[in-house]
Amino acid sequence: VQVVESGGGLVQPGGSLRLSCATSGFDFSSYHMKWYRQTPGAERELVARIRSGGGVTRYADSVQGRFTISRDNGNNTAFLQMNTLKPEDTGVYYCVAGRNWITEVDSYWGKGTQVTVSS
After folding, report:
1. CA distances from 29 to 24, 96, 114 (A)
2. 12-36 pLDDT, tens per residue?
3. Which residues contact 86 (CB under 8 A, 6 or more apart)?
4. What is the DSSP string of 41-79?
């Protein structure tokens, strides 16, 4: 099983980034996909999730209206489009493939990609 994030980097406030999550080794279309972020000094936060079929998405209040999660079941890849980025969006972003919509029991995690929002 592989879950590999990419697309992180340094961006100025107000800018955009698109994170990708390439997966293999499991039935991607059967898994819900989620993006978590870990910010220094704060608890890990679930920022966005999308159901296995792609029809339902949910966002943390802190990113609602700025981030968009999507998935391509044909290419076993998930995405997180991040717009109007703020310094408080800085952190390590983790992609998670999970069988459970609410908890992370029976899930696969990537190693994370760093996002830094700074001028």
Report:
1. 11, 13, 26
2. 999 999 999 999 999 999 999 999 9
3. 13, 117
4. TS--EEEEEE-TTSS-EEE-TTTTTTEEEEEETTTTEEE
pLDDT tens for each residue of 33-57:
999 999 988 899 999 999 998 889 9
* CA dist., res. 100 & res. 15, Å (int): 33
Neighbour count for residue 63 (Cβ, 10 Å): 22
| Tokens describing residue 44 | 């890990």
Residue owning tokens 């994170």 = 19
Count of residues for the chain? 119
**8 A C-beta contact, residue 98 and residue 1:** no
> In whole angstroms, what is the distance from residue 97 CA to residue 93 CA?
13
- 49-56: which pairs have CB atoms within 8 A and are 24 or more residues apart? 49/101, 50/78, 51/101, 53/29
